[in-house]
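Field notebook, page 348. I keep forgetting to write these up properly, so this time I am using the form the group agreed on. The chain and the ligand, zinc ion, are recorded exactly as supplied. Prediction of the bound pose follows.
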Amino acid sequence: MKRLLTLGVILSVGLITLAAQSRKPAGTEHTGKAFRFNKVREGVYHAVGTGNLAVVGNSSFIVNDDDVIVVDDHVSPAAAWVLLEEIKEVTKNPVTTVINTHFHFDHSHGNQIFDSRVNIIGHEFTRQMLLSNSIGMPLYRNYVTGLPGQIDDLKKRLASESDATTQSSLEKQINVAQNNLAAQRELKPTPPNVTLTDRMTLFRGSREIQIRYLGRGHTAGDVVVFLPREKVVMTGDFLTAGLSNMSDSFPDEWVKSLDALKTLDFDTVLPGHGEAFTDKAKIGYFQDYMRDVWTEVGRLKQQGVSAEDAAKRADLTKHGAHLPINGPGVPLIGVQRIYALLDQRAGR
Ligand SMILES: [Zn+2]
């Protein structure tokens, strides 16, 4: 009987272990490295996609004495899976903690590969969105419904291309997009299992990891991850190396929330898009842009211009010296958001 019991225990422990390991998701196939790891401090890395796999946003990871903390987990379970595979080449420490800077698909759609022992930390709002209708929101809907058309376009270009180098580049892009489509079909939005509303601090040996909510901005629940000793901040899309999408934003409040970011003592930013940077003046450039977008789009709305036309006409070219703006126009999804906010505030 005792032996049977022991066997039972061993079997059930075995089953738990098996159940805890997520099955390899669809769409992980790729050639070469999927990520380039930019080591900015001892144990602190910024992970930027190479283009060999669809990952979309950047992640960061922090290697501690006994574990690894990952900040953001990309566009799909496949991308998160491959990230973990490549992290294993840096450290054997297990990933115990994931932090979602916000709910957007390119920062949280890898959550499902982590078993229940992994703490997935995010703002209360991030949890609410991933539990409700995050994939019905325009940003993801536009993205995922656009994928088949992108693949068709690439195939058409390939069919009419005669240059061998361009052909092989197009073939690679088609493979990457097809794998991403296969990965998206397995998507199950998975919310954080630990939430915060204001701030939370993790301690790992001598390392302090602050998770800070600085006010509404890019979404109603973006957090930044601040390492005070290392003077590094991971900002997701609250502050990127260029422009950030506005589809779920509060542009006027965002300007104020960025003032709160400026009060943190950091010298290196690891953004959710683009390369790491040290130039804090970028915060001001982005605030100036955001103020002007708000005013300019509001002005056009006041004149009775449709959102579609405002998206073409809104002229922010004067910010072109510091931000990637080549001509008039603001993404329609951002203009629609501002129109909706103005209507809401006017009680319409
Ligand atoms: Zn993003």
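OBSERVATIONS:
- The radius of gyration is 22 Å.
- The mean pLDDT is 93.
FOLLOW-UP: compare against the apo run.
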